[in-house]
TrEMBL record:
Transmembrane segments: 12-33, 67-87, 99-121, 133-153, 165-188, 208-226, 251-279, 291-312, 324-341
Stored InterPro entries: ABC_BtuC-like, ABC_transptr_permease_BtuC
Source lineage: Bacteria, Pseudomonadati, Pseudomonadota, Alphaproteobacteria, Hyphomicrobiales
Protein name: Iron complex transport system permease protein
Superkingdom, natural source: Bacteria
Family: Belongs to the binding-protein-dependent transport system permease family. FecCD subfamily.
Organism: Rhizobium leucaenae
Length: 344
């Protein structure tokens, strides 16, 4: 038995190491390949401090920040989906199930359509609200939506089924409001709004990566603390309490973490679909139900999926790049069907 356990642990470590290597290779590939045709030697020269000004600008100011932003967003969405699927015991759960995506969508819609200009008192000067506020606005909207759903579920029962039903209902209302506003009012920023709604890494900069980074660090720091609770939250409340779990506290902490990760990602890059739904299923398909392996594998797969999806969109669309949200929507459906066919 000891030998069998050792072999299993070795295989698990090897699987995780393989996907970490794949994630690193995806990062390297995304840096070297793009719409702008830059020879590999020039790309290497940029990192040694001898690259041309053009290569320096493309690599350091365009490709690298959008890659890093995409990796962080992919990790956020994938981990948020895994947590929500565990605590709600719903295999179809993703950030939209808690209304986070819809809340961020409504907040960004209001920001872009109705707060385009501000007037200073006693002056005719008009200033446009900066688009740099967009990630923060989306994050706040997502967190508020998650908070509303949590409070409704708390008053009712705080059971997984009630959380799911509240999320679906509130999310539908928020989505309907956002669509109604978009249909009823035009804006000079409509193009920006439509791009954000499709889920895109276009023009993402180091500022976007810096906005996400604190959430990533905090989220990854909390994950080891909730690893065992996540295993127990898959059971009903009475069973989980019989193992000594403080069900309400751990349930609330897991929901808070998932909402914070999802809201920050959606606020920064838009509602990229299928990442939070498919990546956890793929991780469990590869690693089984061992949460100690599923968690890091989900992180690696989230980074790989977004990095390669964005690269495919850039290469296929060339100058008119295809948003990553469209790429994941098209490719996600057959992957999900294949996973469901192989899952008992």
């Amino acid at each position: 038995m000891t030998t069998s356990l050792s072999l299993r642990n070795t295989g698990s470590t090897g699987l995780l190491l393989a996907f970490v290597i794949i994630a690193l290779l995806s990062l390297v590939l995304a840096v070297f390949v793009g719409v702008a045709d830059i020879p590999p030697s020039d790309v290497i020269a940029v990192f040694t401090g001898h690259g041309s000004q053009q290569a320096q600008s493309v690599i350091m100011d365009i490709r690298l920040p959008r890659i890093v932003t995409g990796i962080l967003a992919g990790v956020h969405l994938a981990v948020a989906g895994l947590i929500l699927q565990s605590v709600t015991r719903n295999p179809l759960a993703d950030p939209s199930i808690m209304g986070v995506s819809q809340g961020a969508t409504l907040a960004v819609t209001i920001f872009l359509l109705f707060t385009v200009y501000i007037h200073y008192s006693g002056s005719t000067t008009v200033a446009e609200l900066p688009l740099e506020w967009l990630p923060a606005v989306g994050t706040v909207g997502g967190l508020l939506a998650g908070g509303i759903i949590y409070m409704l579920a708390f008053r009712l029962d705080l059971g997984p089924l009630r959380v799911t039903l509240c999320g679906i209902a509130v999310g539908a209302v928020l989505q309907a409001l956002a669509i109604g506003l978009i249909a009823g009012w035009g804006s000079a920023r409509m193009e920006v709004l439509l791009e954000w709604l499709s889920g895109s890494l276009y023009a993402r900069s180091w500022e976007h990566a810096a906005f996400l980074f604190p959430y990533t660090i905090a989220g990854l720091a909390v994950l080891p603390m909730i690893r065992r609770p996540l295993e127990l939250l898959r059971f009903d409340a009475s069973t989980a309490r019989s193992f000594g779990l403080c069900y309400r506290r751990q349930f609330s902490l897991a929901l808070l973490l998932s909402c914070a990760l999802a809201a920050s990602a959606v606020g920064t890059v838009g509602p990229i679909v299928f990442i939070g739904l498919i990546v956890p299923h793929l991780a469990r398909f590869l690693a089984g139900k061992r949460i100690a392996l599923v968690l890091p594998l989900t992180i690696a797969l989230g980074a790989v999926t977004v990095t390669l999806g964005d690269l495919v969109g850039r290469l296929i669309g060339q100058a008119d790049e295809i948003p990553i949200g469209i790429v994941t929507a098209i490719s996600g459906v057959p992957v999900l069907i294949a996973l469901l066919r192989k899952t008992p």
